[in-house]
Every structure is written in C-alpha cells, then in structure tokens.
Write a structure and sequence with these properties.
203 residues, alpha/beta, Rossmann fold, 7-stranded mixed β-sheet, 29% helix, 27% strand, binds S-adenosylmethionine
Length: 203
C-alpha cells in the first residue's frame, strides 16, 4: 500500500510542468519511476541522510533521467532562487522541524508560475482516530525518525503563501491506519491569504 499509486498520483499528474524538478527529502528516490522522461529535464534530489542519498544515487544511475543527488535540508535548500519549475515533497513535512519555513524555502526556489507538488499524511479528521494519533505521537516520533502523526500539511501549504490548485484526500488503512489521512495535491505561489480563499481554487 505504501507503494500504491495514490502515493505518487500528484507528482505524476504534474509531469507536464516538471522540466526542472527539485525533490525535497527524496529518500531513496522511490519517486523516480513516476517522472516522465519525455517531460522532465533535470531532477535535483535533496536528502540529508547519507544512507538514503547512497540508495538514491544508485537508483538514479540505473535510470534514464538526469538526476543529481545532493546533501541538504528543507529549511535551507542548496538551490538558487527561482531555479525550479516544480518542487516535490512526499512524506517529508511530517519530519521537518518547521513545515511552514520549509515550504517558504520551496517557494523561494520556484520559478514564477512554478508548482509545488505534495503527497503527505495528516492528522485524522475523525475525533476518535485523532485522539489515538495524539496518544501514539510521542512514541511514533521517537521510533519513526521524528515523523509526527498530528500535523496538518494543508494548513502549512496555505500558511507558507501557496494557493491550492488541486487536492485529493484519502485515508490510510490496515497497518498504515495510524498515518491518518492522505493528501495529494498541487499548489502555486499565489495571492490567497487564507484557507477560505484557497478553497475556491480546489478541484
Ligand atoms: C518518509 S521519508 C520519504 C522519502 C521520500 N520522499 C519518499 O517518498 O519515499 C522522509 C524523508 O525526509 C527526509 N528528511 C527528514 N528531515 C528532513 C529535512 N529537514 N529536510 C529534508 N529532508 C528531510 C528523511 O531523511 C527521509 O528521507
């Protein structure tokens, strides 16, 4: 299920505008098969963990895309202003210290008209499930690499100054039920100043 299609539906759908991609917290680059080589020119995979970077580099060598794997973190990307057509974050906002700051950094590196493509898990909107997540969170964070179960990545996207263009939600089930909701979508740097403003832009 973790490798299910829903996981990467957002990056795949944004392929048309993926010419120069920066993927933040790329991990082992499990996303690579979902990029369209006909549309993507370059991928800069930013990843702070050296073990993950080694796995990503190995995967990149086997692929046909021009990928560079670089050390760096979401809060201070080693990327110049306006260099990316698309920034991808997948299951990273749960782990960064300050998701809004990380997303502002994503906005900095996006070229005008560029897109943020995200796929994240979020706190459940059911009261019982949300309560269970809150109870589990301290242990989960400790044993799952600082991953928090109780965040609201959509609010972080909006608070960082993005306008939502698309957002689809789902629910994790089975062994992954603790992750709560799944959110996948596309956002652009825009003028909306509140979640209410962005609702109109969602399809
Ligand atoms: C759950 S994994 C997801 C990896 C990949 N995006 C994927 O979907 O397979 C979270 C990744 O975020 C990375 N990470 C954690 N804190 C980070 C930070 N502050 N900046 C960038 N990446 C970070 C971790 O090293 C890890 O590779």
């Amino acid at each position: 299920m973790w490798r299910s299609r829903v996981r990467f539906h957002a990056p795949a759908r944004a392929a048309a505008r993926n010419r120069a991609v920066v993927e933040i917290g790329a991990g082992s680059l499990a996303s690579l098969p979902f990029y369209d080589p006909a549309r993507v020119r370059t991928i800069r995979a930013i990843e702070p963990d050296p073990v993950m970077r080694a796995l990503a580099a190995r995967r990149a060598r086997r692929g046909e895309l021009a990928v560079t794997v670089e050390d760096g973190c979401a809060e201070a990307l080693p990327v110049g202003d306006g260099c990316a057509d698309t920034v991808v974050v997948a299951y990273v906002l749960c782990s960064v210290a300050d998701p809004v700051a990380a997303l502002r950094e994503a906005a900095r590196v996006l070229a005008p008209g560029g897109q943020l493509v995200f796929a994240e898990h979020a706190a459940s909107d059911g009261p019982v499930a949300a309560r269970l997540q809150r109870g589990l969170d301290p242990f989960w964070r400790r044993f799952v690499g600082g991953c928090s179960l109780v965040r609201d990545p959509l609010a972080a996207v909006v608070n960082a100054g993005f306008t939502l263009r698309r957002c689809e939600t789902g629910v994790f089930t089975g062994a992954l039920a603790a992750l709560g909701r799944h959110l996948g979508g596309i956002a652009e740097i825009g003028l909306a100043t509140s979640a209410g403003d962005t609702d109109a832009g969602m399809r």
